[in-house]
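**User:** My hope is that you can spare some time for a protein that puzzles me. I have put the entry right below:
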Amino acid sequence: MFETVTRVRAPERRPFQHIAILSDYVRVPYATGSTFAAQLLHQEFRRRDHDVTLVGPRDPNARPNELPARHVLLPSIPMRAQPGFFLPVPNRRSLRRLVDAQFDVMIGQSGSDLLDAGVWLRATQNVPLLTVNTTLLSRLYDTLLPESWAGNEAVHRLCANTLVPMAEQFSVQIYNQSDGLVVLSEGLETYWRNLGVTVPIHVIPRTINTRVLDADPGPDPYPAWAKKGFRILVLCRLVREKNISRLIDIFAKHVAPHVPEASLTLVGDGADMETFQDRAARLGVGDRSFFPGEFPVHEVRSWYHHADLFTYGSLSETYGQVISEAMSCGLPVVAFDDEAGVAQQIQHGVDGLLLPPGPDVPACNARFGSEVVSLLRGPTRRNRLAQAARSSALARTDRQAHIDRYYRAFEQARRHRALSKPDLSTLGRWKPIVRWTALHAFVGSMGQVRPPSALNKHGRQQPAWTEAPTEAQRRSDGEAA
């Protein structure tokens, strides 16, 4: 499935030989940008002869071949609304395993309070902790709300005015107890500084797996009725927070009536997939909309390479990895300006189109649709943007530059930890554990509100954590737990 890892000659033993990655998934049950980012970090640091251990929740459905060679699994609480997602909780045995692992540095690649595992190890074992902002809290709460609450203005006001600010300050506290925060765009650096983050902030955009995306795309996966030259692609989790309904509305009202050949393909899966299918049917474009489901990361290149235009409506991205993936495959992108991750990747009019999402939503929708129509009917302009998109994406996502930024962040985190006064009180040492347990118990109960859903309904398996490790790696990589 993947090529054999090519080992990169590493320098002599460095202070960061053993790296821990705190991840919301130790098994990858379905596509998530944050987990793919952790997966690439795992691969690239191993390629450079680091020992890398994944730390995260135990998934009772995981098979041994789905787990990384080194891992520490924590007791977990299942999220009823999102099968496959588990909230880790601490116990004495799992904390002892974390201590015994003797990490040199930790990367908190998590959107949950698993970050407090890193805060605790930092306080008790002096291990430098680099946290990564993987979620935009102002949008995340919507995924927990049942459909009947989604349109309730009172519920949204409560969340936006009370619960989200509380959660943001909670995150600020954790970030400020680390040795640095990694954000994926300059807009998010400003966002967190304004909220009170005082530790060093590093802007490190994600890299992408070009070895996978540049491989032979294979046969055309689109149905015969989706005419080449007029294929609009959306690829993401099919949930409300991604603004899928808005894209379907734009297609139905502002694109389909003007371009009879146009088709809309939505690759992915999620709790709201059936809702979006019903919406397309109600708006009269059900026969021009295609929902093929989720595909493993090594198969999505076929959808990118055989499409003509990529559109994105989400305003909840810390980065939006699919934007770089689409651009690297030579797809021009039309997206809304989120003033964060998506906006950082597109130069309007140069390698894609970045359009205002408001405040006049109907007018903005009409403009978005008009630009899509223009590109579908103007292959010369579309091709110019496509060529520029590929060039800029490949330059932006250079893997060695990405890892070099992490090395610099590690070094600064080590210095920051050395200069920070440890809290030697019993309360100070155990506060992260109490906070971690309480928050995940609360979020776990909130996760029971929304009805359960079936995700990745086609059962297509995402790739394992390693790209076919060498025999030497297999011998040297024993399980940490």
